[in-house]
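assembly run, all chains below
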Amino acid sequence: MSSGKPIFTRGPSLNLRLGLSLLTASALMVADHLHRIDELRSALGVAVYPVQWLVHAPQELGAQLRSRLITWNQLLEENRKLKEEVARLKRHTLKYEALKKENDRLRAFLDNSFTLGEQMLVAELLAVNLAPYEHVVLINKGSRFGVHVGQPVLSVDGVVGQVIRVTPINAEVLLITDPNHAIPVQVNRTGLRAIAVGSGQLDRVEVSNLPNNVDVKPGDLLVSSGLGGVFPQGYPVATVMEVSPQPDKPFAQIIAKPVAALDRIREVLITFGHTEPVPFISQETAPAAQNITADAHR
Amino acid sequence: MPIDKTYLGIFLSLLGAIWLRLFAWPPLLLPFNPDWVLLVIIYWCLAAPDRFGIGLAWLIGLLVDATTGRLLGQHAFIYALIAYPCVRFHTRLRIFPLNHQLTFVLLFLLLAQFLTFWIEALRGKTLLTWEYWLPSLTGTLAWPFVLAVCRTLRQRYLTLP
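ok done. output:
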């Protein structure tokens, strides 16, 4: 380093540079917060995609190498397990068609619609960590495939999260365990409605605002209730792990574990289709039933 | 005029830093992952303030924002703000003994994290646990490593006047 060389002989002074930088950065932040520069954001997102890919690629390669080095016995074992799984699932689906018909018929009596079988798009997770204190993951399908903000994202086990930002080639998904995420759920056993809020830990969500004497037990399955209009109804979200009444507080502390293994998923399903809230009571008798909305991510 | 090869060193070290920043660490290690990009920016502001300064720090911040899905301008603001004292006092900071340097690095990293928290809190994202501040500590510990790697790169791609 030649310290004798004059530096900053050209251009504006250091203070001016700092002032300009901070001003433009602030202006950008305000504009971005107001969603005025979504196009710029999207263009930048495409521009930095190679970097994200560069981070993802070696890890993907490692995973592929590991899968090539798998032994004959491991394959046989896995094959056996998969066959068992298929047999089990087949048993479950035997009566599915009949039950679906019956369900549709019963719902027709109640004057409301409910359809299972939304369209799904399979996307792969990029092995990229965006912010250490947030649960946001990157997937490799974007608006080119019709992905848009607010779409629910599922895994084969249960609800994963929702799309919060898209570029043409990738999208960001907010997981249900992010502290800023809330999903309306329903206790499968009793039909009780509640809201599951992310805790900031990948293996737990908290069910808030339920009274101390509530009928929830460890082991209860929480499914998405479809209220709020983001998530489709009836997908498993979490299993209740712990119910601890707190006599000194108005609400019980209920901790649940997401059904989808959020720290291990590699592939997710993005759902398309109608996700309108399904009223549990017909609309004529209770017009207020639709006002309960709770999907929030900002 | 020969091509300034220092920029090659800057580019390579920044690429490495972004790689480490984005790497999908196991969930257990994730809270310890420091802001490598900021560490590398601090190094180049101290080592080559005639080539690397507030403007480049701002630009890199913008790219980091786009890569990590933050509010556009958030990292740009923070990196530019921290580049300022580094460039201004580079003659002093550079000759400090390592433990003094570490103190300043810790201060810069804490300031960056505080600003990050502040900006995100303005948008209504407030979850502050003690773990949030861990990257500042590990970042300080990682400073000698960053120093060694970047110094090697700089000497390798040194352009002689």
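Residues 117-278+292-298 of chain A form a domain with the Thrombin, subunit H fold (CATH 2.40.10.340).

The longest helix of chain A spans residues 72-93.

not gonna interpret more than that til we talk
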